[in-house]
Amino acid sequence: MVFARNQWYVVAYGEEVGDGLLARTVCGEPLVLYRTGAGEAVALADRCVHRRFPLSESNRDGDRIVCGYHGFTYDPDGTCVAVPGQTRVPRTARVPAYQIVERDSLVWVWIGDGRGDAAAIPRAPWLESPSYTTVRGMEPLAARYELLVDNLLDLSHETYLHAGYIGTPEVAQTPITTETDEEAGVVHVSRRMKDVECPPFYSRSTGIDGRIDRWQDIEYHPPGFYLLHSRIAPTGVEPGPDGDDSDAFHVEVGYAIVPETETTTHDFWWVARDFALDDAEVSAFLHDSNRTVVLQDVVALNKLEKVMASEPAGHQELSINIDTGGLAARRMLQKLTAR
Amino acid sequence: MVFARNQWYVVAYGEEVGDGLLARTVCGEPLVLYRTGAGEAVALADRCVHRRFPLSESNRDGDRIVCGYHGFTYDPDGTCVAVPGQTRVPRTARVPAYQIVERDSLVWVWIGDGRGDAAAIPRAPWLESPSYTTVRGMEPLAARYELLVDNLLDLSHETYLHAGYIGTPEVAQTPITTETDEEAGVVHVSRRMKDVECPPFYSRSTGIDGRIDRWQDIEYHPPGFYLLHSRIAPTGVEPGPDGDDSDAFHVEVGYAIVPETETTTHDFWWVARDFALDDAEVSAFLHDSNRTVVLQDVVALNKLEKVMASEPAGHQELSINIDTGGLAARRMLQKLTAR
Amino acid sequence: MVFARNQWYVVAYGEEVGDGLLARTVCGEPLVLYRTGAGEAVALADRCVHRRFPLSESNRDGDRIVCGYHGFTYDPDGTCVAVPGQTRVPRTARVPAYQIVERDSLVWVWIGDGRGDAAAIPRAPWLESPSYTTVRGMEPLAARYELLVDNLLDLSHETYLHAGYIGTPEVAQTPITTETDEEAGVVHVSRRMKDVECPPFYSRSTGIDGRIDRWQDIEYHPPGFYLLHSRIAPTGVEPGPDGDDSDAFHVEVGYAIVPETETTTHDFWWVARDFALDDAEVSAFLHDSNRTVVLQDVVALNKLEKVMASEPAGHQELSINIDTGGLAARRMLQKLTAR
Lengths: 339, 339, 339
Known about the structure:
The structure is a homotrimer. By secondary structure, chain A is α+β, with helices and mostly antiparallel strands. Helices cover 21% and strands 34% of the residues of chain A. The first copy, chain A, has helices spanning 145-153, 158-161, 169-173, 200-206, 280-309, 324-338; strands at 7-13, 22-26, 29-35, 41-45, 59-61, 64-66, 73-74, 80-82, 97-98, 100-103, 106-111, 133-141, 177-181, 186-196, 212-221, 225-234, 249-261, 264-273. Chains A, B, C: Keywords: 2Fe-2S, Iron, Iron-sulfur, Metal-binding, Monooxygenase, Oxidoreductase. Chains A, B, C: It comes from Actinomadura algeriensis.
């Protein structure tokens, strides 16, 4: 496997990047992240030019990093400005600085050559919108990121792996529609369930206690950005002719699926809602429930990774209708990695 | 190394296979085992055809297994009978079912092509005989199974590794006779000790407190079935002219030596005796003593495996008379794996 | 990487070799060490000729080792003198015996062909001199030994990694002089600091509470012997014209840098002083402080080893003046390993 390079990846939540030195590897590239006194997020290659000591194991001196081994000192743009035992700093002494964009409370890094186009970064506006309340987290996954893409593009697994949380029998039973927008580079998968059971995740958070209409509209932006627009409403409640849908509940679930190494992944997840905005109990419930669901996936995918690692590559699979979205995602990923 | 295929292997004790889903790997092939409502033991390949999720991490629905990831549902013969999101089940959807034979309280599985001949399975009738009482267990061994074959074919190691349990100086001192029955595919190793010390394993279980005659008659049925017919009697007590030997004590020790992977092994062991049949204290003593002896071997062989893993293959060995049985066993194994 | 063979290596402190069987691997060669009744240190290959069982997991019978698996018995010169089940011992039955020299309380082993010249062993006479008191230890390092050579040849890292113990800003600031004696096969690195801060390691042990002159004179004897002649004196105190330097404090720090495997190292260290000879508190302080310093290096180098293991070989480095000694050491090591 090769990584999809020349791409934007979520590397951290904005609040993770601060005074400390945060080590995080993306696509096999070790980075050190911190925030300057002026508030700018910085990402440098996490290896001193001298003897490759990790800069994340070092110390800050103002906006600079002083290597913890021999004191090579770096500016936020990666330039080395001091070395021990001599006043002359070699001209070639610099570590690569990575292009960073902060948007919607996410820190994006450009992994590739040259500079990326920030306009190409997909948006998640509800993460900073006052009309939404968000809970979120990040779990380490000991599996290749493609397994998580597969997992999230086919939600029929909710019925089996997440029963009692978000899964009900109707999820697996209801057919999906899949649409690949090659131009925009997005895979859409939709499932519209009418008059179905309301799983605990939504009944306890919304207060609905009868049957519901439940929409799942997935947008997958390769290589690693995933949005699930979830609409829940008492059965029969429809959006108004003017587009007003305020009688329904909207939950914007999202994932950043970020390859760390070839077989490990950063699994960022969030749940934004447009109801019970100030209800701390609902926030705690949704946080804990969704984290449980994420960890159920983590456990299952870690097992699958072990299966794949123990078998020769190119094992056979059998795909059916539910896999249409996942297969479209794989084709897009293949194109990106082949470039 | 390759495994000996087209062979019967012990995969479990009968009582291990029940309502649950038991994962067990034999010769690198992952299996899931369970027992149908009608009492029949079933072994299927432990990988869903869809995305290779382990069926052993799944759930039963009556006699069927429902995959824990996306709900693919299998009959005991491996046929997939239901998939999510659609009513049509692809015709090719099936997992391999393995041929199973239960005999003498052991569950045997055929690893290979086509169907095996159940008549070729070696017997251990005392395991279910009312004239014997048996204690048994299974220990995981982090070593290639050939090391356990070597170990068991040469019991002179009892003197050094199992002193205080079954080893006495006379075991290593007494020469052996070895006979290879190529036609039947069995290696026989015998050691007849006359007027020797009685080790605690036998003195405490039989009550003999003087010198003994001690016979060790080994039958090794490649690749993985091992019987040790052990006869202990006060010195001078001989079988009668009519074959009656009821003044002696008989202990039928057995091992199933089952390769899990190239470097790990299932080490099944049992001790059946024709005396003190209802004496729970003797049972507990023999169980604990033999398990200790097995674990002494496990510790030593795990160390040897690490030695072998840390060295280039084809290291030199020096073999002597005591190794005649082990070398014969290796030759038979080589023939079986070369097929 | 290959090891430098046909070399002397420190394998143990004299007091480590006694009645027990000590397992220690040098340059990938597993050894078992013990001391005969007559007091002679013995090193044999730690593998029985029969089935490669580690002799270090065995037992002694007087000056002999009896293999813990099948009882093959060896004389201190490696000759096998008894085997089980037969009186004839095969003529070829012997394990390699390694040439051992004990000098200055260190046990040296010759790794290579034939016999080594004991006169080539570098000396550390203060280890057994009544004019010095020594504290010492050995720490396992999960890193290739070259990283420790690099580390010790460039003491500017004291300022960053060992601040509060032996590091002060002046160490990194003071230039070094390096001299390579190709004929003797020694690298010399010297740093003379005048009128500098006295770090706690020296102030608490010597009782000096003002500014000091501090000399660091390194001798590196490839592949793995390192001496640091450290002289501390109140600023301005110089050796007399007759060479008398009794108003200064002398600390003879030493390391034996001994490759265990390609990526692990035995890190022997000692600190000998010519003052406060009978002061147990100073001994305890120097032992604990130096062990802390060694462990700071161990932690840093273990991290570096992980960095190197995770990256393709031949990564770029940037060397400056402080690295002159380390680069000279590398060149000498390359010559030794190329032979």
